[in-house]
Amino acid sequence: MVRLTIDLIEKSKSYFKKKRGLSFPKYLKTLTHLHFFSKNIDDIGDVSMCTNLTVLYLYDNKITNICNLDFASKLTHLFLQDNNISSLGNLQNLKRLSNLYLGGNRITLVEGLEELHELTELHLEDQRLASGEKLLFDPRTLLSLAESLCVLNINNNNVDDIRNLSVLKKLRHFSAADNKLHSIGELEAVCSLWPELLQMDLNGNPVCKKLKYRDRLTVSCKKLETLDGKEIKEVTRQFLNNWKAAKDAKRKGIVTQIPSGSLIALPLDSKSLTFVSYYINLIIIDHITI
C-alpha cells in the first residue's frame, strides 16, 4: 500500500533538489505543484501542510476514493485520470478548481460538483464501465455548472442521450466521440442552446451516418468552427444558412414552382417583399433537405 503523505513528499527527489536550506515545514508551504503520478498510490493521506497547492498530479495510480483535500482551497487543477475512482465526493471545498481530469476511472454517475462554481473543464472520457452501464449526470450538478463549464469530454462512455446537457450554455468545446448518439434532431435541438460552441467531436457515433448530418449541425451551431476534426468554412456556413432560409420560405408559401420549373412569387406581405429578389434567383433543389 502506497499512501500520499508528508513523509512521501520528504523522500521525493524534488524536495532534495529544491529545499536549499529551507526547513521542511517551510518548504511545504512554498509548494504550488505536486507531481506524484505513476507511483502506485492507492490512498491520499494528510498533506494539509501544503497550504498553497494549486496543481496536483495523481494520474496513473490506484486511488479508489477522493479524500483529504479539504485543505486545498487554492487548488485549480486536479489530475486523477487512470485510477480506480468509482464515485465523486469530498470536492466541495475546492472552490477555485477550474480543471478536473477524471478520464479512465470507473465513474457511472457524475455528481457532487455543486460547489465548484469556477469549474471550466471537466474530462470524463473512457470510463471503465460494466456491461450495459453508461455515464449519467446528476441534474443538480449540471445546473451548478451551467454558467462556468466551457470544456466537456465524455468520449467512449455508452452515452445515448445528451438532452440533459443542454443547460451548459457556456460550452465551447464538446467531445462525445465513440458513444451511441443516433438522433440528429436531438443534436440539433441541444446545439441550438449552446450559443458559444466552437468545437465538437462526435466521431464514431451512429448519428454521423445520418443524411446531411454535417450540414444540419453546421446550421444549428451558429459559431461552430470545427466538427469531427474538420474545419467549417464561413462560406459553407453562409451557403447552408441561405439554402435553409430559402427552403423554409418555400414551405411557408413565399416561393413556388410552376410546371415549367421556373419560379414565381405568391402574394406576399410588405415584410416579405424585400426578400423576393433573393429567393427567385436562388436555385432550389427539392430532394436535398437541411
Automatic annotation (TrEMBL):
Entry-linked PROSITE patterns: LRR
Species per Swiss-Prot/TrEMBL record: Nothobranchius furzeri
Top-level division of the source organism's lineage: Eukaryota
Keywords, in A-Z order: Leucine-rich repeat, Repeat
SUPFAM superfamilies: L domain-like (SSF52058)
CDD domains: PPP1R42
Stored InterPro entries: Leu-rich_rpt, Leu-rich_rpt_4, LRR_dom_sf, SDS22/Internalin_LRR
Classification via Gene3D superfamilies: Ribonuclease Inhibitor
Protein name: Protein phosphatase 1, regulatory subunit 42
Keyword Repeat: yes
Gene: PPP1R42
Pfam families for the chain: LRR_4 (PF12799)
Key word Membrane present: no
